């Protein structure tokens, strides 16, 4: 399911020695002011006042959520309050939120408005880095120190120049974006991502929360086409050190979720502005406690204020942990 792209206000970086014809036209890590640091369930029985018949009630309408494929996903009955809290955030700010959370311990998926798309922005830097890891594994070699440095710059500090260099390296020798997009799309296919694809550039492609949570889950569970040590290196570089990664999923650093202290956080945030001035704000990552691991994808759009978008992204992730059973 693809929707027509609207024009975007692009942020450009110019690199010495590279033609701007080969640069991605969406660069989502532009500087901004620093911020302070399971599906189906059986219906319940209801005794009718006028009879002794026990009838099955369907799930609360807040449990039933649309997916990117047009089908329906039914959350756990006790997750209704999460959807309602997210609905309230949307109403309060006049924006659209999509949230997917996969609990690796229980195997349950929570979904809120899975049919809503946004632009990938800088969260695409994760599958771009995964593509480099995939090609290194195919060549039966370890990452070079230079490649590790590029990944750290791209992921930890959301550096656009490093991302451009990685994207160029798995394309053709002349940096042709079509070849790079084909390599990236192969990674999406291997991850089981069904809707998100690159058309030649990076950052301005449409994506959905279901696709993004699948990417995060695959890194956690590991995939056969990436060296396990390289996958672990990628997760380690997704630490919320830079201010740009401390909101959204990154806001859970040092917190207690569902009665358990958070032991580890991996996060990648991204943002991009349309030419109308409206912001798309995204946050994907992994939250770990001693007993549970959560893969999370929060996508949102419609913000007039970029900093408000960061705050709401954090509130949306917190809403899940506040109300999850």
Would you spell out the secondary-structure blueprint of this structure?
Layout: E1 8-9, E2 45-47, E3 54-56, E4 64-66, E5 72-74, H1 80-93, E6 96-103, E7 109-112, E8 117-119, H2 125-138, H3 145-156, H4 160-169, H5 177-191, E9 206-208, H6 209-221, H7 228-237, E10 256-257, E11 260-261, E12 264-274, E13 279-288, E14 293-303, H8 306-323
Antiparallel strand pairs: 1-12, 2-3, 4-5, 6-7, 6-14, 8-9, 10-11, 12-13, 13-14
Helix pairs in contact: 1-8, 2-3, 2-4, 2-5, 3-4
- Please identify, by name, the CATH architecture: 3-Layer(aba) Sandwich
End-to-end gap: 32 Å
Roughly what percent helix?
Answer: 25-40%
Q: Report mean pLDDT, rounded to a whole number.
A: 83
Q: What would you report as the Rg, rounded to the nearest angstrom?
A: 20 Å
CATH topology: Beta-lactamase
Strand content: 15-25%
CATH class: Alpha Beta
> In the residues, how many domains can be counted?
1
Strand order of the largest sheet: 1-12-13-14-6-7
Number of strands: 14
Give an account of the 3D structure.
This protein has about 325 residues and is of the alpha+beta class. It has one domain: DD-peptidase/beta-lactamase superfamily (Beta-lactamase, 3-Layer(aba) Sandwich), CATH 3.40.710. The protein is built from eight helices and 14 strands. Strands 1-12-13-14-6-7 form a six-stranded antiparallel sheet, with helices on both faces. The longest helix is centred in the last third of the chain and has 18 residues, at about 305-325. The protein starts with 7 loop residues before the first strand and ends with a helix. Residues about 1-55 have low confidence and may be disordered.
């Amino acid at each position: 399911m693809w929707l027509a792209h609207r024009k975007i206000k692009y942020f450009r970086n110019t690199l010495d020695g590279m033609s701007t014809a080969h640069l991605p036209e969406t660069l989502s890590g532009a500087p901004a002011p620093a911020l302070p640091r399971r599906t189906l369930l059986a219906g319940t029985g209801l005794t009718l006042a006028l009879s002794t018949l026990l009838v099955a009630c369907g799930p609360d309408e807040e449990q039933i959520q649309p997916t990117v494929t047009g089908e329906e996903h039914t959350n756990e009955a006790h997750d209704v309050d999460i959807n309602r809290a997210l609905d309230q955030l949307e109403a309060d700010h006049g924006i659209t939120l999509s949230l997917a959370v996969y609990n690796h311990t229980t195997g349950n998926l929570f979904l809120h408005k899975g049919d809503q798309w946004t632009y990938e922005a800088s969260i695409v830097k994760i599958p771009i880095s995964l593509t480099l890891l995939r090609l290194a594994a195919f060549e039966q070699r370890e990452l070079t120190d230079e490649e590790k440095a590029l990944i750290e710059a791209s992921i930890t500090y959301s550096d656009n120049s490093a991302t451009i260099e990685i994207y160029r390296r798995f394309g053709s020798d002349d940096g042709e974006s079509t070849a790079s997009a084909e390599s990236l799309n192969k990674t999406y296919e291997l991850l089981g991502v069904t809707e998100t694809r690159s058309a030649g550039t990076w950052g301005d492609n449409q994506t959905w929360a279901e696709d993004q949570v699948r990417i995060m889950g695959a890194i956690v569970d590991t995939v056969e086409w990436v060296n396990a040590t390289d996958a672990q290196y990628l997760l380690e570089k997704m630490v919320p050190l830079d201010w740009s990664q401390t909101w959204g999923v990154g806001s859970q650093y040092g917190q207690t979720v569902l009665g358990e202290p958070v032991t580890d956080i991996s996060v990648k945030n991204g943002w991009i502005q349309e030419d109308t001035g409206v912001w798309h704000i995204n946050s994907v990552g992994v939250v770990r406690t001693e007993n549970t691991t959560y893969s999370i994808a929060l996508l949102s759009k419609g913000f007039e204020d970029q900093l408000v978008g960061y705050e709401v992204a954090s509130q949306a992730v917190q809403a899940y942990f506040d109300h999850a059973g």
